[in-house]
Specification:
α1 packs across α9, α1 runs parallel beside α11 and α10 packs across α11. The strands form 2 sheets. The chain has a 10-stranded mixed beta sheet, sandwiched between helices. A two-stranded antiparallel sheet has the order 6-7. The protein has 3 domains: 200 residues, Isopropylmalate Dehydrogenase, CATH 3.40.718; 96 residues, no CATH class; 35 residues, no CATH class. It is globular and about 65 Å long. By secondary structure, it is an alpha/beta fold. α1 links the parallel β1 and β2. The mean pLDDT is 92. It is 39% helix and 18% strand. The protein starts with a strand and ends with a helix.
């Protein structure tokens, strides 16, 4: 059975990473028909928009996409294409597996936790007003005296019971499906008593439905950050906010898989960027498609190459100037060899 997958190469190093990732994924033997569509800088230059309607229509039709890194200007320019994709397609759950692999330098070993983040609300809702606008001024005037400085830019942080219940239930169902032991709700409810408070109350209600099956706890984000540094082995699932790290954005019957890293435009065309995160995103995609055996083989091939530490890109070498580091394409070729 052939699957049609929308392929969004992205920009910067995205297209070259995507070319390698596609070859590695195909080497699992799963038949995939790639339907390529643009987004990001390339789409802006060619079509006058960063997120063409044809790209959205293709994902709505085929229900699954693999996306490369896309450049997002910091503090100026167009808004994040990644955020727009999630909002337009209702991809409310951001799934970020954080797993350590032998061969990748880290202060800790045997880490295997998952971050589940709500994609559509909180500050990701993208509701903001620039300094000096009438909307920002009205909000300043509505706030208690002295709470907001004159001339401030304003972001609004909406949190609803509906979206909170949906994402918390997603986390618990994911925990059950993947034999995870615990879900941790992470908030700043001691300060944001109405918004994060609503989320926390809703999380506790949902958690009661899973008593005896999945453990549940609540932590403030300050404490969570410290615990992740000091005791990362204690955590299986996180509801809250974040390489070799893959990512998935999931909605009702629709999914877009992407690496956590950006587009790294300064390395474009140099054949030196690590393809692991995008390839592991492809592994998550195969699991989503129900191709579990192929996904397991793909992850095993990636793990073997990382553990050997020989045919890896410069960032995975103990010395980043190691002349024995290989390029993007070669690292992908060695993963393919492990799959054959």
């Amino acid at each position: 059975m052939a699957y049609t997958v929308v392929c969004i190469p992205g920009d910067g190093t995205g297209p070259e990473l995507m070319a390698v990732a596609r070859r590695v994924i195909e080497a699992t033997g799963v038949e995939i028909e790639w339907e390529e569509h643009p987004a990001g800088m390339e789409a802006l230059e060619r079509l006058g928009t960063t997120l063409p309607e044809e790209t959205l229509a293709a994902i709505r039709k085929h229900r699954v996409a693999l996306k490369g890194g896309i450049t997002t200007p910091i503090g100026k320019g167009f808004r994040s294409v990644n955020v727009a994709l999630r909002q337009e397609l209702g991809l409310y759950a951001c799934l970020r597996p954080c797993k350590s692999y032998p061969g990748v330098r880290s202060p800790y070993r045997d880490i295997d936790l998952v971050i589940v983040r709500e994609n559509t609300e909180d500050l990701y809702a993208g509701v903001e007003f620039d300094a000096g606008t009438p909307e920002a001024q009205r909000i300043i005037e509505m706030a208690p005296a002295g709470k907001i400085q004159p001339g401030a830019a304003i972001s609004i942080k909406p949190i609803s019971e509906v979206a909170s219940r949906r994402i918390v239930r997603f986390a618990f169902e994911y925990a059950l499906a993947h034999e995870r032991r615990k879900v941790t709700a992470v908030t700043k409810a001691n300060i944001m008593k109405f918004t994060d408070g609503l989320f926390l109350r809703t999380a506790a209600e949902v958690a009661r439905e899973y008593e005896g099956r999945v453990a549940y706890e609540e932590l403030l984000v300050d404490n969570m950050c410290m615990q992740l540094v000091q005791k990362p082995h204690l955590y299986d699932g996180l509801v809250g906010g974040l390489g070799v790290a893959p990512g998935a954005n999931l909605g009702e019957g629709m999914a877009v898989f992407e690496p956590i890293h950006g587009s790294a435009p300064k390395y474009r065309g140099q054949d030196k960027v690590n393809p692991t995160a995008l390839i592991l995103s492809g592994m998550l995609m195969l699991r989503h498609l129900g191709e579990m055996a192929a996904a397991d083989r793909l992850e095993a091939a990636v793990a073997a190459v990382l553990a050997e530490g020989k045919d890896v890109t410069y960032d995975l070498k103990p010395d980043r100037n190691d002349p024995r580091a290989v390029g993007t394409r070669r690292m992908g070729e060695v993963m393919i060899e492990h799959l054959q």
